[in-house]
Amino acid sequence: MDDKLRDFVPGTVALVGAGPGDPDLLTVKAVRALSCATLVVHDGLVDDRILALAPANARRISVAKSRARHTLAQESINALLVAEALGGAMVVRLKGGDPFIFGRGGEEVEACRQAGIPVQVVPGISAAIGGAAEAMLPLTHRELSSAVSFVAGQCKGLTDQDWSGLAGKGRTLVIYMGVATADQIADKLIADGVSPDMPVAVLEKAGRPDARALRTLLTDLGGMIAREKVKSPALIVVGDVVLRSDADDRLAAFAKRVEGVK
Description:
Blueprint: E1 12-17, H1 28-36, E2 39-42, H2 48-51, E3 59-62, H3 74-86, E4 90-95, H4 105-114, E5 119-122, H5 127-134, E6 145-152, E7 170-176, H6 182-191, E8 199-204, E9 212-217, H7 221-227, E10 234-238, E11 248-249, H8 251-261
Helix pairs in contact: 3-4, 6-7
């Protein structure tokens, strides 16, 4: 056996980052893991072209999650990985973006370790990194931002989360899973002292053929998402770096609406 394939053998689990969607953004190691899989347990948003890289006879199980519905609870996914590996499968747990960035990869690794199953993690290009690159949006910039933070916008007790200091001058804030709570997010940041005129971008379906990057002001974030009918998956980027991006400007529509109110 090729030494490079020895890690991907029956009875093991590999958590593999599928990146933001474009198969060209997979790592070489991710492709190698998929080529050895006998079972692929994948997120619902993983591109079909990536799934096609696994052998034709490999089983494929979707464990898609959405805000309102989960195909399997996380505990059941953990149990599935363990049971299949104990049964002799070479399991690839294929996750959008990177397994350790809001991917629950840490929980799955712990479950495998507790069961004595060899497990490894193959990192992927995160949605934030891939989406920002696609929109020519530098998350850090020598003149504009020396820090970047990642937060989840869809979580229990959102209003109780302490985001103070994460957004503002000289900083970039990237919010995952924030489309459904955009109005609350804007209110929360403004209440914490972020200017209502802070530029924001929404990166929709990064890495896919129908990707969009839209730009407006923080105070208009929820309104723009509603007007443009933005759908998940989408990222929200808050900070002056947004002005250096190729995002389509939606400030004119917002200004026209504000002028109408006056």
